[in-house]
Amino acid sequence: MLFKIIQNHLYLFIYLLCISNVNAKSPFNSSFTPEHLRYLKNETKYLFKHAWNSYMEFGFPYDEVRPLTCEPYGPDYKDYMNTVRNDAMANISSTVLDNLDTLIIMEQWDDLDYVLRYLKCKQKDFFNKDSIVQVFETTIRFLGGLMSAHLILTDVKFKTTTSPKFTKIKDEYDGFLLDMAYDLGLRLIPSYRTSTNVPVPRINLANGLKNVPPVLQKDACTSGVTTPVLEFTLLSKLTGDYQFEYYSQLSFWKLWSSKSSLNLMPMTIDPASNQWKDSITGIGASIDSFYEYAAKASIIFDDKYMWSVFKASYQALLTHSAQGGDGAMIFPNVGTEDGVVFSDWIDSLGAFWSGLQVLTGQLSDAIKTHVVYLKIWDYFDSIPERWIYAHHNKKNKKKIYRAEDSIELEWYPLRPEFIESSYYLYRATKDPMYLQIGERVLNLFQDKFKAPCGFSGIQDIKTGKKQNRMETFVMGETLKYLYLLFDTNDEVFLHSPAMNSKNWVFSTEAHPLWFHKGLADENYNFGAQNLSALTNDKFKYTPAVVKNITVSSPYMFNIPDENDAIQHIGKKDPFSGRFDICELNPLKKSSKSLLQSSYYDWPYLFNSDYSFSKSLKKPSHINKSNLDGSYIELTRDFFDKFTTFNTSLTCPRTYNTQIYEIFWGDIKSCGNTEISQIIYKRPNTTESIILEDDLWVPSLQGLRIIFEELVAGSIDSRNEVITNEYISLIQSDDDEDANMYKKKDSVLRIKKINGVSLRYGSLVWTLPFVPNANDNGEVRVTSEGRVVIQGKVIENLVVWYG
Ligand SMILES: *[C@@H]1O[C@H](CO)[C@@H](O)[C@H](O)[C@H]1NC(C)=O
Ligand SMILES: *[C@@H]1O[C@H](CO)[C@@H](O)[C@H](O)[C@H]1NC(C)=O
Ligand SMILES: *[C@@H]1O[C@H](CO)[C@@H](O)[C@H](O)[C@H]1NC(C)=O
Ligand SMILES: *[C@@H]1O[C@H](CO)[C@@H](O)[C@H](O)[C@H]1NC(C)=O
Ligand SMILES: *[C@@H]1O[C@H](CO)[C@@H](O)[C@H](O)[C@H]1NC(C)=O
Ligand SMILES: *[C@@H]1O[C@H](CO)[C@@H](O)[C@H](O)[C@H]1NC(C)=O
Ligand SMILES: *[C@@H]1O[C@H](CO)[C@@H](O)[C@H](O)[C@H]1NC(C)=O
Ligand SMILES: *[C@@H]1O[C@H](CO)[C@@H](O)[C@H](O)[C@H]1NC(C)=O
Question: How many domains does one find in the chain?
Answer without folding.
Answer: 1
